[in-house]
User: What shape does this take?
Amino acid sequence: MTAVDNTPVGAGSAGPDRGTSAAAHRAVPSRRRRPPTALLGVAGLAGLLVLVQVLPSTPLVSPRYLPPATEILAALVELLGDGAFWSALGDTLTGWAIGLAIAVTAGIVLGVLIGSVPALRAVTASTIEFLRPIPSVALIPLAVLLYGTGLESTLLLVVYAAFWQVLVQVLYGVQDVDPVADETARSYGLGRWARIRHVIWPTSLPYVMTGVRLAAAVALVLAITAELVIGAPGLGNRIAVAQTSGAVDLMYALVVVTGLLGVGINLIARAVERRALSWHQSMRGEVIV
Assistant: This one.
């Protein structure tokens, strides 16, 4: 701690000190109050609504293909009173939740197992790198052949897409374990499961949560895509039906619902991530001066 000198300054040194103080004050930039991030987000959404409202009245876009924002919002309000809409929303969330749960469980278990056994990781590395880039939508014909247009087809696509998001992150997390910490645990006689619990898991958890957050978003995309293309029950199927029947305002209203659903899932995933990693340095709000 620095001591403060309270000795009065002589007249001869007053001039330079004042000049230095004035220069220091001029050098410090003035702090401007920035608008809250939430307010900026609301302003951006308002701008988008204005754009969608204005565009159909210009020669650029026909109202047949893009109705004004007021019509889309009116269709959205009507949806809230439609029981079939809530049933479709439930179907989408069911496929998303079950597929995500399977993918996360399999990704964590296999990721820890493969990552903690060097020989197993070497054997599976080429297979993982081959299968991971395959788009899930390329498996749609296979899913239809195996399971038809039911929930099982949606689950196949969702699990395949979300699984790699978790597996790769867990592998990176296990690889990030400090070898010294692992050897120290071995020297104290900790078995494999004890090392996984006390050494590997705490190090891998930030990677796991990142993988879960990414997988949650990817799972929603694939669930709606499967419903659109295959015709499985859900919001995607409702969007396809609205498009083919010419109900463009309803189609856009359903698209807005899927967007809001994605935003909600992302917010929940981030909240869970912050809660699970409250002990981690990346989530601490402390400012070190």
About this structure: Residues 64-280 form a domain with the MetI-like fold fold (CATH 1.10.3720.10). The radius of gyration is 28 Å.
